[in-house]
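<given_protein>
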Amino acid sequence: MDQRRSLDFTDFDAIQADVEKLLNGHRTVGTWTLPEILSHLSKAMRLTMRGAKETPPPPTPEQDEQRKAFFETRQISAGRVLPTALLEPSSDHSAEEAVQTLKDVLERFRKYDGLFNAHPVMGPLTHDEWIQFHCVHCAHHLSFAHPTT
């Protein structure tokens, strides 16, 4: 398999710029297509904002440890099993449609002021921590897509 790109996004604007560049031409080195990658990322962001009815309980010591390690390394291990079938990518959209969906979700997330669901491993995260989580998550998956132009 070809080498993945090294990416580390710190904000949603950087993600959007990278995705726009990929739309102009790309190749992928993993098993997912670009629309599937973007579908997964959009679903993960939407899931973050959906369903919380009350503030989650404080994190456990294990969740605190996981959160600290994640934000220090800014890495997601390759080959992890998806925590829920809701995050399975769909391939029924063109790259252009998938890019637009991700842009819409990024904008919705920027403006979102409701309760967030707790992360399944790290527990409750603040709005800023969720932004950084999604930046790292996007960098992980978009590292499998290389611009060709």
Q: What stands out?
A: The radius of gyration is 15 Å.
